[in-house]
């Protein structure tokens, strides 16, 4: 699953003059287009615009509700799989630091290990070899 980070910025309220654009609607559209392209160049994907209320002061004692248009952008910051892989790599690093070269110790034979034969077997005389009787 992909995780995202979001960025919200105010929508332009007035169109800027641009070459070849003469109408107020065209200027405003060009201004919004420039804002979207500038954010896209930084890796942000346009999601939507929202019209949200904002309580603002009016005068000394009163307030009024003003509606603001906001542009919402998002970009991926990582996936859940990459977070899990990072946790596994961290755990492996910690395990190696706690028990270094454990695999080398288990593959080498220890010189202080006693023989598998008991003391009685060492003292017993060699018995003649018995062969099975095939008649």
Would you kindly provide a brief summary of this structure?
With 135 residues, the chain is α+β, with helices and mostly antiparallel strands. Helices cover 36% and strands 30% of the residues.
Report what the structure shows:
There is one protein chain. With 135 residues, the chain is of the alpha+beta class. The chain has a domain of 79 residues. It contains 4 helices and 3 strands, in the order βαββααα. It has a 3-stranded antiparallel β-sheet. A hairpin with a 3-residue loop joins β2 and β3. The radius of gyration is 39 Å and the shape is elongated. The model has no long low-confidence stretch (mean pLDDT 79).
Low-confidence stretches: none
Work out the number of β strands: 3
User: Overall mean pLDDT score?
Assistant: 79
Report the portion of residues in β strands. 25-35%
**Overall helicity:** 25-40%
Distance between the termini: 76 Å
CA-based gyration radius: 39 Å
Note the run of SSEs as H and E: EHEEHHH
Q: What is the number of helical segments per DSSP (H or I, 4+ residues)? A: 4
Strands in their spatial order, largest beta sheet: 1-3-2
Structural class: alpha+beta
* Shape call: elongated
For the report, how would you describe the main beta sheet?
A: 3 strands, antiparallel
């Amino acid at each position: 699953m992909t995780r995202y980070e979001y960025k919200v910025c105010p929508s332009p309220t007035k169109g800027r003059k641009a070459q070849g654009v003469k109408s107020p609607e065209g200027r405003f559209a060009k201004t919004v287009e420039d804002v979207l392209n500038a954010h896209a160049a930084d890796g942000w994907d346009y999601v939507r615009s929202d019209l949200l209320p904002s309580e603002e002061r009016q005068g000394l004692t009163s307030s009024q509700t003003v509606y603001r248009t906001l542009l919402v952008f998002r970009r991926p910051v990582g996936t859940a799989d990459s977070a899990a892989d990072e946790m596994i790599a961290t755990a492996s690093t910690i395990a190696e630091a706690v028990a270094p070269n454990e695999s080398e110790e288990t593959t080498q034979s220890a010189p202080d290990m006693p023989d598998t034969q008991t003391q009685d077997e060492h003292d017993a005389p060699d018995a003649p070899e018995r062969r099975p009787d095939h008649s």
